[in-house]
Design brief:
heterodimer; A: 100 residues; B: 187 residues; mainly alpha; 72% helix
Chain lengths: 100, 187
């Protein structure tokens, strides 16, 4: 029988995959993909808790996360296009202009 | 029984696809595996009885967000492999795993303390979409409207940011233009 902890463990594994991606990626587009992975992991956890506690609040939060992710992608991709026009690259090491 | 089979199948496939997303050097592979992983995540939502959330996931993520990514990919050179300077992969894995574990423990701690009560319980015999609609438009009306304004702002920001100097070529491959011009001249 599949319980709440199963879903939470899967969500935690997917979240850590996304976190590893955020830490090791140097390309900005790939960094965006990793953040999407993390947001999806959180959505799984919210839906699972909503199901097992028979409560709709988790699903509501998941909806707002989806809306926030959509607007984040719209603004972020616009910024990426502007950056690519300006520097010709999306590599974070090339874009770092403040070297200490 | 079927739930268990579906759960294990979806979880193994999702984890594998997201690993491809995070590890792949090619943008196209990363994007397609991310899209298919999101389709499988909507499968999780359908198993959990959150039908409306699953449909929203399919439409918004797999439909809109992925289309946006693929349009943005046309601006960048997607066929070339991405070269990344990786510093000490083992350390990154250790740090990522540990911090994710700490985060999960932090957020999972209140669940096991029996302190959770159902604020807006689901109703028997009512479809998930109806239930969600009633709660969304009575209890969460203000956040809903704020989210609508936020999406409008994001749309305008995306248009303004991406629409500047659209007539310039991004890839700056002027030789291709010259080739076309010479072919025209030959004719």
């Amino acid at each position: 029988m599949i319980g709440l902890s199963h879903y939470l463990i899967v969500s935690a594994i997917i979240f850590s995959i996304g976190l590893v991606g955020v830490l090791r990626r140097r390309n900005l587009l790939m960094l965006f993909f990793a953040t999407e992975v993390m947001l999806n992991a959180v959505n799984i956890a919210f839906a699972a808790i909503s199901h097992y506690y028979n409560d709709l609040t988790g699903q509501m939060f998941a909806f707002f996360i989806v809306a926030i992710a959509a607007s984040e992608v719209a603004v972020g991709l616009g910024l990426l296009i502007v950056l690519y026009k300006k520097y010709g690259s999306l590599d974070l090491d090339d874009l770092a202009s403040m070297k200490g | 029984m079927y739930e268990a089979i579906a759960f294990y199948l979806f979880s193994v496939l999702t984890i594998g696809l997201f690993l491809v997303t995070v590890m792949s050097k090619n943008v196209l592979y990363a994007m397609t595996s991310l899209a298919s992983g999101m389709v499988l995540i909507s499968g999780f939502f359908f198993i959990l009885g959150a039908d409306f959330l699953g449909v929203v996931q399919l439409i918004v993520y797999v439909g809109a967000v992925m289309a946006l990514y693929s349009f943005a990919m046309m601006f960048f050179d997607a066929t070339r492999d991405i070269k990344e300077k990786n510093t000490n992969t083992a350390l990154v894995f250790l740090l990522g795993g540990l911090s994710a574990l700490v985060l999960v423990l932090m957020f999972a701690a209140p669940i096991h303390s029996e302190a959770i009560q159902a604020l807006y319980p689901m109703h028997e015999g009512v479809g998930n979409a109806q239930d969600v609609g009633i709660v969304l438009f009575t209890k969460y009306l203000v956040p809903f409207e704020v989210a609508a304004v936020m999406l409008l702002v994001a749309m305008i920001a995306g248009i303004i940011l991406a629409g500047k100097k659209m007539d310039d070529s991004l890839t700056e491959d002027l030789s291709a233009d010259d080739e076309i011009m010479t072919q025209k001249d030959e004719k």
